[in-house]
Design brief:
209 residues; Methyltransferase, Methionine Synthase (B12-binding Domains), Chain A, domain 1; Rossmann fold; 9 helices; binds CO-5-methoxybenzimidazolylcobamide
Length: 209
């Protein structure tokens, strides 16, 4: 059975109630959880995006696919986080104000948890104050996600508030999301840009051994 094709199709078609069992069976059949994410689930969301742009999918279908993806991630989460070494470093991650996209941010959170970081997943549409509060509550790394060109400017406000509150040097600020670039991250004064979840793990693992 081609599990990758089957899972890809199930996400695209939004088979939310079947996907959990399917993902579990695929793992039992020997497919690596990381491959399910990289080679089936993320490509499925890219297909959904193409279908949206082509006018074949509308918001309800996209929402259903995203929620199906989330269910798959919920099933895979225990496998992806297995083996975390427990670094004792808290990372707070959230999506910037005005932005409701949470799938990529959740993936980053799961992968970092798998690498041994303690995770506070703060949610979406967050004002700058929420990110600063996370640092006051003990996060040493604060991650900000944005998926919209119209929301990414909000990352600048997050950095500015950290500076204004005298907490800029107390945290490592990591930013990412589809429209975000290394150049933009440097412009706004973030410490780290990660293009995807694996990259975020790689960089933070190097910085926090
Ligand atoms: Co939206 N949407 N959406 N959407 N949506 C995009 C992002 C878009 C590219 C689609 C398109 O037009 N091709 C486009 C943005 C264009 C732009 O600004 N450049 C877009 C738009 C325009 C919109 C609306 C404005 C549409 C409308 O209403 N007219 C609206 C905005 C709502 C709002 O946020 N205020 C909207 C709404 C939605 C839904 C609610 C329907 C749904 C979100 C559901 C949810 O998240 N719960 C949705 C979805 C699902 C998408 C697409 C199809 C898929 C996003 C996704 O989940 N990708 C998306 C097209 C696309 O990206 N292909 C699109 C899978 C995920 C694993 O990847 O999130 O990129 P991604 O995360 C990656 C990296 O970016 C990175 O790591 C992850 C992979 O490892 N990363 C980080 C992300 N955050 C990181 C943080 C880090 C480090 C790395 O450190 C902290």
């Amino acid at each position: 059975m081609d599990w990758l094709a089957k899972i890809n199709e199930a996400v695209v078609k939004g088979r939310k109630h079947e996907i959990g069992a399917m993902a579990g069976e695929a793992v039992d059949a020997g497919i690596s959880p990381a491959s399910l994410v990289d080679d089936a689930i993320i490509p499925a969301m890219n297909r959904v995006s193409d279908m949206w742009r082509a006018g074949e999918y509308f918001v309800p279908e996209v929402m259903r696919a995203a929620s199906t993806m989330q269910s798959a991630m919920d099933t895979l989460r225990p496998y992806l986080v297995k083996g975390g070494t427990g670094k004792g470093i808290r990372v707070a991650v959230g999506t910037v104000k005005g932005d409701l996209h949470d799938v990529g941010k959740n993936l980053v959170a799961i992968m970092l948890e798998g690498a041994g970081f303690e995770i506070e997943n703060m949610g979406v549409d967050l004002p700058p104050e929420r990110f600063v509060q996370a640092a006051r509550d003990g996060a040493r790394i604060v991650g900000v996600s944005s998926l919209l060109t119209t929301s990414m400017g909000g990352m600048r406000d997050v950095v500015a508030l950290f500076e204004q509150d005298g907490l800029r040097d107390a945290v490592t600020l990591i930013v990412g999301g589809a429209p975000v670039t290394e150049k933009f991250a440097q412009e706004i004064g973030a410490d780290v840009y990660a293009e995807d979840a694996a990259h975020a793990v790689q960089i933070l693992n190097k910085m926090f051994k």
